[in-house]
Amino acid sequence: MRLRLSDRQVGILFMLPLLVTAAAFIVWPVAEAIRLAFYRYNPLRPDDLIWVGLDNFERILDDPLFWDSFRQALVWTGWSILFQTVLGVGLALLLHTALPGIAIFRGLLLFPYIVPTVVIALNWRWIFNSEIGIVNHALLRLGVISDNIAWLSTPDMAMASAILLNVWKYTPFVIICVLARLQTIPTELYDAAKVDGAGAVRRFLDITLPMLKEVLVVVIVFRTIWTFNKFEEIYLLTRGGPGTSTFNLAVYAFEEGMANLRLGVAAATGVIMIALLLAGTIVYVRVSGFGREEKPA
Amino acid sequence: MDVRLERLSKSFGANPVLKSLDLTFPERRFVTLLGPSGCGKTTLLRLIAGLERASEGAIWFGDRRVDHLAPGERNIAMVFQSYALYPTMDVAANIGYGLRVRGIPRAERGEKVGAVARVLEIAHLLARKPRALSGGQRQRVALGRAMVRKPDIFLMDEPLSNLDAKLRATMRGELKRFHLDLETTSIYVTHDQLEAMTMSDLIAVMDQGVVQQYGTPEEVYDRPANLFVAGFIGSPPMNFAEVEVASDAGAPVLRLAGRTIPVPPQFDLAAAPRRLTLGIRPQDVRIAAPGDAGAIPGTVWMTELIGSERLIEVEIAPRLRITAEVKSEVRAALNAPAAVAFETTKLHLFDPATGLALRRRA
After folding, report:
1. Can you give the CATH number for the domain in which A269 is found?
2. Cβ neighbours, 10 Å, residue A160
3. pLDDT at residue A37 is higher than 80
4. CA distance to partner chain A, nearest, from residue B362 (Å)
5. Nearest-CA residue of chain B relative to A297?
6. Of A276, B68, B146, B157, which is least surrounded by CB within 10 A?
7. Average pLDDT over residues B36-47
8. What pLDDT, on the 0 to 100 scale, is given for residue B60?
9. B contacts of A195 (beta carbons < 8 Å)
10. Do residues B348 and B230 make contact, with C-beta atoms less than 8 angstroms apart?
């Protein structure tokens, strides 16, 4: 007997692999994390799973380190996104010009983005090393500084170094997105603006920037989410230190879960991060007016 | 204000696009640059607009030399092929953008934009974005943007080519009317000879970076200066055939496919070469009876009905076919014998070596 399936059933069949994968690797872990946030759970005593209600959340909100980590996460995310966006748009505009040899730079552009984070972080630790790092060496030779700068061992400098690393690694992502959009803007628009008397700055503000708006909204949302959640760069570069001065919420959750073996608290931190990012994204997308364009007639 | 080009040249790299043009666009006239793709007409328009820099030569607007000025300093307006409306601005902002750039106060701007919008009947669209407009509406917004600034020179780069045939016919009339209302010098680029013929005071027919002929539509159509203009202007295109100048009882005649054609009175062939290219428009060819003594016999090769007219192609010698445009009632069966007769006063003669038209008697 031949199996007869309706179009609908065939469609569901084709979607099944994705649904199963998504359920196994996204839905289930998230649900499990949310569930764990309401339990006390020490991985060394797997049988000892105790329902504690909102205790984990109370504990977190009473923890000064959580609030420090939150503030530092805002600093880390805010500056990273600001620099990535400004540099990304600026470099994309530069790469959009028809200068000779520009294609080579476009190719080199993705380099920081494709090198594994571990490699980059370890390299940057050497680069920032206050005794033998190339940054201090170069600055000393150039006469910009007279004493070595402790790039990674004072709180402010460590945060700045971490932000610098993040900006270096992820600006190419912004450049690629912006460049792709720039290449779709018809040159006739610029011709029309020239005829209307607009100079280069005006043309950028009145034509380029408004046309980049949609892509920038998307890029900023994604970069904000990814940066706010970022763990490995900070941890590999500074381990959250000196002290706890470069803790963000991801490092805080990791320390609670892995160092202090309080997986329930770590999970609750994760839930709080989801809530914060969700609320932030909704507000931002609403305020920016994304997707509220008129439809064609 | 008239526009004068002096020995204007433009090359892109080693590739010359415009070759030492001397051309004057008289004040308040509607002048069309007509030519096939790649003839340099759009480049010429962009040079006049200031969007490209000339390699050599000068551009004068009246008595002001402008080729060193930026587009915004030339007081021109331009309508682009794609209209180039700013997609993120509404219609009012699009029309008023040139005024805003020039620092005109908001209230005055609003007034001017409103006045232009009323003239163009787009006042109800002022709050819309370009993407929510139809092709014809976009066209009007582009015109509004040009109109609001009261330009000295009005430039148009194939502004009708994105419209459907019916709207194009309507907009042709509107553009001409618009030019008359604006009282400016208009320069219009197109590859469509119908647009050029119907709208222009003067046509500059261009090919390979050179102006082949510059004259009124009548001159360009009735007295083409060379083989290119003769073949490019007119639809269906002119028939061409090689003829020999012979003598019949002392009087010069033209020999074509074994028949003789009297030399039209407008030509004096005393100094002409022995071989010439004859040109005759399909409208000036008549289908005659096969036995007609003044006609050239052949066989019907193809017929096409084009509405009220019919095109009949008659093969009068191997691979030499003459098209006649006749009333649609005239019937002709394929491969049937037929003959073509020419309206001799409408004959054109060209020197095949230079391509130039033979001089006519004054």
Report:
1. 1.10.3720.10
2. 16
3. yes
4. 46
5. B132
6. B68
7. 92
8. 94
9. 49-51, 71-72, 76-78, 98
10. yes
Q: Angle B314-B316-B322 (CA atoms, 0-180°, nearest 5)?
A: 45
Q: How far is CA B283 from CA A104, A193, B224, B318, B324, in A?
A: 60, 46, 16, 23, 6
The shortest C-alpha distance from B200 to chain A (Å) reads 24
* Inside any domain, residue A30: no
Instruction: For chain A, give the mean pLDDT.
Output: 89
State how many domains chain A has.
Answer: 1
Is A24 inside a domain boundary?
Answer: no
Q: Is residue A168 part of a domain?
A: yes
List chain A residues with CB under 8 Å of B128.
Answer: 294
So what's the pLDDT on residue A110? 80
Measured CA to CA in angstroms, residue B13 lies from A97, B10, B17, B55, B309 at distances of 18, 9, 10, 10, 48
Helix (H) or strand (E) holding B156: strand B153-157
Residue A297 has which token pair?
């007639």
| A112 within a domain of the structure (yes/no) | yes
B280: CB partners within 8 A, 6+ apart: B238, B239, B322, B342, B343, B346, B347, B348
A7 C-beta neighbours (distance < 10 Å), count: 7
Q: Name the residue among A188, A207, A296 with its Cβ closest to that of B80.
A: A188
Tell me which residue has tokens 């222009």.
B200
Count of CB atoms within 10 A of residue B57's CB? 17
Over residues B314-345, the pLDDT tens digits come to 999 998 999 999 999 988 899 999 999 999 88
Say what the pLDDT of residue A63 is: 92
Task: Identify the pLDDT of residue A207.
Answer: 93
Residue B278's nearest CA partner among B296, B302, B251, B300 is B296
Instruction: Give the residue from chain A lying closest to B48, CA to CA.
Output: A195
Residue A74, chain B, CB below 8 Å: the answer is no
Is the pLDDT assigned to residue B298 strictly greater than 60?
yes
Q: Which residues of B touch A297 (CB under 8 A)?
A: 131-134
- pLDDT category at B13 given cuts 50, 70, 90 is confident
Q: How far is B101 from chain A (nearest CA, A)?
A: 6
Residues of A in contact with B97 (CB under 8 A): 193, 196, 198, 206
- Measured distance CA(B70)–CA(B84) in Å, rounded: 19
Please give the residue range of the domain that contains residue A235: 55-288
Q: Do A189 and B78 touch (CB under 8 A)?
A: no
pLDDT digits (tens, 9 = 90+) for B82-105: 889 999 999 999 999 999 999 999
Q: Is the predicted ipTM greater than 0.85, yes or no?
A: no
Contact A195 B71 (CB under 8 A): yes
Amino acid at the residue B108: E
When CB atoms are compared, the residue of A195, A198, A210 closest to B78 is A195
pLDDT band at residue B174 under the 50/70/90 scheme: confident
